[in-house]
Amino acid sequence: MSDASIIKIDQITKIYKMGTVRVTALQDVSLAAQPGEFLAIMGPSGSGKSTLMNILGCLDRPTSGTYLLAGHDISRMSREQLAHVRNQKIGFVFQSYNLLAEATAIQNVLLPLVYRRKNHVSTRERYELAHKILLSVGLVDRDHHKPTEMSGGQQQRVAIARALINSPALVLADEPTGNLDSRSGQEIMEILQKLHTEGHTIVMITHDARNAAYAQRVLHLKDGRLNGDSPALESHQTETARGVA
To answer: What is the pLDDT of residues 78-92, one digit of tens each?
Structure first.
């Protein structure tokens, strides 16, 4: 594993205790992702995908093993330190969008900036940045629309813009097309692929092989263990190289 890795996981194990019962969700998982890589994680229900995503997103800590994110040892951080890393280093895209219902699109995008410890950017500059990011994900004239005034695909674009506002080292997408129709889902995947070509590091959980084909590598989990790590299908990669996608 290269020292330049954005993600470097070594022998991660996660055990949940339920009374006297011990459930091993992950067992000796090791992987690395280089800057700018696009990884897809696949596996059946109960395979450990969500547990791995929670650890990658600093929402949970492993029972044993190490996790380095951009060179920082996440596995030994305090809750406060983890919260800071989540805000500064990671952008989240969830299946259910997780937008504030009473906030406008631009207010939702700006939300991560509220929790920054040091923020010397003026209000005007913040709004200009959020507007620019909304445009970059294909949302025009939607800055002041609330989630209920937008389609599912538009809401997910807002969620992607929110994930990008802090220029994160890592974008985590958890079933990003799960609540969308096929056309909207394809549009969201094309946005993620565009972000990848621009240099963003993306890790995506998906059950859809068509979505996984947008990634460079596909990791397969089974019974809490890494069961395969292979290049994705070539179709979308080839289209990108040709300028089609």
So the answer is: 888 998 899 889 999
